[in-house]
Amino acid sequence: MTQNENNTPPTILSHLHELKKRFKIAVIAYVIGVFVLMNFSSAIFEFMAIPLRAALPPDTPLIFLNAPDVFFTYLKIALILSLFVTAPITFYQAWAFIAPGLYKHEKKAFMGFFIASLFLLFTGGAFAFYAVFPVIFEFFLGFSTETIQAMPAIKEYLSLVLKLLFAFGISFQVPIVVIVLVKFGIVDIEEMTAKRRYVIVWAFIFSAVLTPPDIISQTLLAVPMYVLFEAGIFIARRLEKTASTDEKDDSG
User: Fold this and answer.
1) What are the tens digits of pLDDT across the range 122-137?
2) How far is residue 40's CA from residue 48's CA, in Å, rounded to a whole number?
């Protein structure tokens, strides 16, 4: 997106060529990541199974119902984890493409939102893994008896874990959404605070869609969402006050 050696503006074709180049590098890095991570998928799955094993009786095996299940479970882990492992390369390629066309304050804002969003994504995943999983697995497996024993299948367990990690990672983006809506004047802070009761309702609806059909996991997702909504309002209000103070100082 920069000018060439003759100081002539780049053409659409040059933009497309650079975009293709950046995209190709990101894809190659991702594919290499998948092949490398396939060698560690077994250990990664064992780590992901810690909350489940803690709620199961000792030496309870995890089973697979179809011959290809183990292979595709490990492949799925590698495919998803590679997205995160190669994210710095992917982000750099995207940044190298768009950064030359941004102003300095736009670059600063973009980087700030990206870092905050990434932090909240991993925070949401960690909260689900270390706080939510032990509670819901203990609850579900607490219905086992001497004649009814749980033998979880690895395919279904991985699907449940990924679904919950995704749900909590996305839900923890609420402060970013609130701040962006306020910053760009799409929604007023006072208007947003006046509709708190609707936010609570929608938080539980969102949780009901993304979590298993039990009140425990739904509550453990909905409550943090509402708390993060309030945090977003608080931060947005502070940013507005800071911006108005800076404007007064500049005018003074």
Assistant:
1) 899 999 999 999 998 8
2) 12
